[in-house]
């Protein structure tokens, strides 16, 4: 009898919840301290702990870990949830700068790190909600 192929989730591949926690902490530390991230930091409350927990749950589930985010908050609807914030190229780039540094610091598997960053870059681009974005003018989603 042939052994069943086991698919390893990205969550498991990068080290599970401890890595997600370090990733989120590194991300928010950058957002809190980098001058380039001032615009996105200003979109958040002074206490970042509640959003840290939301991002931990979201990223963990998104990478194939426990379904903690959707069990608590339902479908992500990320773009809809962020429509109250002006997100343009500058905000997208600041978010990605913080995430790139956090990934570099916390994810040792370089192939996994690049795969995650590529997917998050597409997501961050989709989150833009200012006039003139291609995804708001009838073009296909990236």
UniProtKB/TrEMBL annotation:
Keywords: Heme, Iron, Metal-binding, Transport
Pfam families xrefs: Bac_globin (PF01152)
Keyword Heme attached: yes
InterPro entries assigned to the protein according to its UniProt record, in alphabetical order: GlbO/GLB3-like, Globin-like_sf, Globin/Proto, Hemoglobin_trunc
Annotated GO MF terms: heme binding; metal ion binding; oxygen binding; oxygen carrier activity
Entry keyword annotation includes Heme: yes
Domain of life: Bacteria
Family designation: Belongs to the truncated hemoglobin family. Group II subfamily.
PANTHER family: TWO-ON-TWO HEMOGLOBIN-3
Protein name in the entry: Globin
Organism: Candidatus Macondimonas diazotrophica
